[in-house]
Design brief:
With 515 residues, the protein is an alpha+beta fold. The protein has 15 helices and 17 strands. A 6-stranded mixed sheet has the order 1-8-4-2-3-5, sandwiched between helices. A 5-stranded antiparallel sheet has the order 15-14-13-16-17. The protein is globular and about 75 Å long.
């Protein structure tokens, strides 16, 4: 039966990816150069590249990592594009009415698609390019070699810069070392292990089993930046090459952002796609979408082994699509660390060894983790898969911050029935925000118990212990431990969940001593 499509129905008509390796830094693309290469690939994918570029009314660029921090963790000494969307537009021959530079978060690609779909369905936009990239690998190689690059770009025109977004940590959390994802996600991991009742060795191997299939997908993906196949045992074994970053994660279980990768999609209304002459066999529809954030501050979470926001926003997406997780043929779960995947599987009702697989790209540690734009690669990878099997559906789950901000997309080449509409995420965000969290104190004192913990390491070994604990009355607190290497090694070798001791606050820093 032929489905009559509303002219304002949003549709993805193009998708493209670009990965650059083995190019000398002085000849390699800048971040916006990579974003433009991905955009060109997406334009070519539509079959009407030259005509379409001139008709783009909106270009949105996903924020690059060097622009994502007040004090950049990956600073760019080579200058920056002051107007990223206009820098991309210049390279592809476009002059859009709107230029948007997105906020921080790995959820941003899906969230941007959700927003643009809504604005297209309302008649506000007709043709939108969303693109993003990173050139961190080139920047790092240039700095190591003493090569000076000129990535400064000044492009005139309007810009809607959405900035860094809401702060994701308090000064107290930063002072105790849990602001960075590489230290925050291990706190979730140990809480998950405790909830499952596993020993450290058993859980290490289970994490390896979770990620081993990801390495195989990455190895067969032509856009992967790494792509080495590894066994569960190899991933779980702590070695010189696979050293601990923050317990319990060895290097190969961490997202790796030292990449040169870009991905883009092009969205239009159905009417515009017809006007452009885009073959309907290229159309991919957003059947369902949702967005929600868990409690922003890590110390406010209800617990550290579930994500209410993942569960709720995906339920809204499935409800909108009229589908269930069992009806998804292709799946990509945001996979910066094992805990992100494990919590997602719990939220979506998926087994961690689901036969459909949990990634179409290979995941952030193995495909590559290009900053805030990873999930654009998942979507761009899924588009041709869905075109080749129009009756099938794909599920993309995205995550930003410290398991904080979430967005979901459900896609298919099967047309959407009726008028496209989504529920305002603000309507259900209140359900997350109103959940009761444990009381919290910045100045704990007295008998206490460890709720979850991690040990941060460098190349020399363990350097600091970080834990979240509870006082005897249930009040939550954040603390560090002794920095003695032998003491920290004992925290790695032996399970410390529910370990009791005494905590005190001295000069704004909390210290926990087990006894």
């Amino acid at each position: 039966m032929r489905i009559l499509l509303d002219d304002y129905t949003p549709v993805l008509i193009g998708a493209g990816q670009f990965t650059e390796q083995g190019v000398a830094p002085e000849r390699a693309h800048s971040p916006m150069g990579i974003a433009a290469q991905a955009a060109k690939a997406a334009l070519m994918d539509t079959g009407c590249a030259e005509n379409l570029a001139k008709q783009l009314d909106t270009i949105a660029v996903i924020r690059i990592f060097p622009d994502s921090y007040k004090n950049p963790r990956v600073p760019n000494p080579f200058g920056r594009a002051e107007n990223p969307p206009r820098a991309v537009a210049r390279r592809i021959g476009a002059n859009p009415e709107r230029a948007i530079y997105g906020p921080v978060g790995g959820n941003t690609p899906q969230k941007m698609i959700n927003e643009m779909a809504q604005r297209i369905s309302g008649g506000e936009m007709e043709a939108v390019l969303i693109t993003g990239s990173e050139a961190i690998n080139t920047a790092q190689r240039a700095r190591r070699s003493g090569i000076d690059l000129d990535w400064a770009e000044q492009d005139s025109g309007t810009l809607e810069d959405r900035g860094l977004g809401e702060p994701l940590s308090t000064q107290h959390e930063q002072d105790h070392g849990i602001a960075a994802p590489i230290f925050a996600y291990p706190l979730f991991e140990n809480a998950i292990r405790g909830n499952l009742g596993r020993s450290i060795d058993t859980h290490m191997l289970e994490m390896g089993k979770l990620f081993a299939p990801f390495t195989r997908v990455a190895a067969n993906n032509p856009f992967s930046f790494y792509g080495t196949i590894r066994t569960a045992e190899e991933l779980a074994a702590v070695t010189v090459e696979n050293r601990l970053i923050s317990f319990p994660y060895p290097k190969w279980m961490n997202a790796r952002d030292s990449v040169n990768q870009g991905a883009a999609v092009i969205m239009t209304s159905v009417a515009k796609a017809r006007e452009l002459g885009v073959d309907p066999s290229k159309w991919v529809f957003l059947h369902g979408c949702g967005e929600a954030s868990d409690k922003i501050m890590l110390t406010e979470r209800v617990n550290y082994h579930t994500s209410p926001a993942m569960k709720l926003n995906s339920e809204k997406a499935f409800e909108m699509a009229g589908k269930s997780i069992d009806e998804m043929d292709f799946i990509d779960i945001y996979s910066c660390f094992p805990s992100a995947v494990e919590v997602a599987c719990d939220a979506y009702g998926l087994a961690t060894d689901d036969v459909r697989g949990l990634t179409v790209t290979g995941g952030l540690p193995f495909f590559g983790g290009p900053g805030n734009n990873y999930s654009m690669h998942a979507i761009a990878t899924m588009v041709p898969m869905l075109r080749a099997a129009p009756e099938k559906f794909g599920f993309v789950s995205t995550n930003g911050g410290r398991l904080t901000k979430h967005a979901t997309g459900i896609y298919s080449a099967t047309p959407v029935k009726g008028k496209w509409a989504r529920e305002n995420p603000a309507n259900y965000q209140t359900e997350i925000d109103s959940a009761i969290s444990p009381s919290f104190t910045e100045k704990p004192f007295g008998r206490a118990q460890i709720e979850t913990y991690t040990v941060a390491c460098d190349r020399t070994g363990p350097v600091s212990g970080i834990l979240i604990g509870r006082l005897e009355d249930g009040t939550r607190f954040l603390a560090n431990t002794s920095s003695d290497p032998a003491f920290l090694q004992s925290f790695i070798n032996h399970d410390q969940l529910k370990t009791t001791g005494v905590v005190e606050s001295v000069n704004g820093k909390n210290l926990f001593n087990p006894n």
